[in-house]
């Protein structure tokens, strides 16, 4: 009876997780994709605002360099004003962080976008800055964080169901081992989706930067710089938080060629 009850509970937990994931869908107005998300844009905005101070504190807080901060905000807002990103409900804010040793940029759900002083000082043009910010904007409008939360809830629910079903009161350690395996599988799944998110964010950046007047090929220069930095010392944190989906430079070149089959127009800021 106990065995049957465990399996019944496990099936219920798994079913609730699966139904919660597959029946919570929303069409993304920017990408045109139907996504599995379980939070609204307003909830994403609230989550991002709540997490922003803590995330900034991890990188020394906001930069005291008012001029550099203004430049970051100006480029970011120019991209928002020129693209579909500005037609979304997200409230974009751009932050320059004081950490001048860490090379990183990231975005929180809802429109909080961050770049470290360490990354900014390694960029050599406004177009490169635009490429970095456009990539992070792509993560926001692509709703990648919301989608990752939904996937995490699904995998955690299924892992919980597996743990319940496999629990052996005569061998408690077996459930721990199986739960660890389930968690590892969940991590692999999340990493794969993260790489797909990177490709989509790059693609959106290729769309956004020319609309704001910037040459999208500057993004390739950024990637080359990151690779060089990785060869000199430890891997830049940007490459750790933004998994490489393979030959990222090659993928960017393909996207740019597809976007501009006749060549990138003249007059864009390089």
Automatic annotation (TrEMBL):
**Peptidase M48 domain ranges (all copies):** 69-255
**Cofactor(s) the record lists:** Zn(2+)
Does the record carry Disulfide bond as a key word? no
The record's comment on cofactor binding reads: Binds 1 zinc ion per subunit.
**What single Pfam family name could you report for this chain, choosing any that match?**
Peptidase_M48
Its keywords, alphabetically, are: Hydrolase, Membrane, Metal-binding, Metalloprotease, Protease, Transmembrane, Transmembrane helix, Zinc
Q: Which GO terms describe its molecular function?
A: metallopeptidase activity
Q: Where are the transmembrane segments?
A: 7-23
The entry sums up its family as follows: Belongs to the peptidase M48 family.
**Name this polypeptide is given:** M48 family metalloprotease
